[in-house]
Amino acid sequence: MKVKSIEHIGIAVEDLKEAVAAYAVMGMKTVSQEEVPDEKVRVAMLPVGSTRIELLEPTSEDSAVRRFLKNRGQGIHHIALRVEDIEGACEELRAAGLRVVYDEPRVGEGGAKVNFVHPASTHGVLIELREGTSED
Ligand code: CO
Questions:
Q1: Per-residue pLDDT for the chain (136 aa), expressed as one digit of tens each?
Q2: Which of 58, 114, 118, 125 could form a disulfide with 65 if both were Cys (CB 3.0 to 4.6 A apart)?
Q3: Do the bridges between strand 51-58 and strand 3-12 make them parallel or antiparallel, or are there none, so unpaired?
Q4: Interval between CA 82 and ligand 1 midpoint (Å)
Q5: What sign does the CA torsion over 15, 16, 18, 22 have?
Q6: Contact 107, 56 (CB under 8 A)
Q7: Which residues are placed with Cβ below 5 angstroms of ligand 1, an ion?
């Protein structure tokens, strides 16, 4: 599996509007917001140098991000890696015994193909794998 870069860092928040305002004070401007139905979240993207901050607010009570907020509170939720050939990467990880969350990639922010590696396999950090952003 080839990792090209850290595409973004995902931060779970209770209130997207308030979070966007707080990050703006820190000089990080939101350039896009969208709802991601597959993940049941609304996201705001804030470019920072060659990477981005992704603020995530759940849109449903059964959203994984809602569960995260209930269990752990607001904070860093995942790190997203830009990879080549996401299907091949997931196959490789499964073959090595790592827990990949979805059988097939789903549609993520910006229309990218995304999948996740479970924190149980990564020493505690949810890892998002993504392929197919505008920069690829
Ligand atoms: Co993400």
A1: 999 999 999 999 999 999 999 999 999 999 999 999 988 999 999 999 999 999 999 999 999 999 999 999 999 999 999 999 999 999 999 999 999 999 999 999 989 999 999 999 999 999 999 998 655 4
A2: 58
A3: parallel
A4: 11
A5: positive
A6: no
A7: 10, 54, 80, 128
Cβ-based neighbours of 94, under 8 Å, separated by 6 or more: 100
For residue 25, report the distance from its CA to the centre of ligand 1, in Å: 22
Show the DSSP H helices in the chain as ranges: 16-25, 64-72, 86-95
Calpha distance 89→55 (Å, rounded)? 26
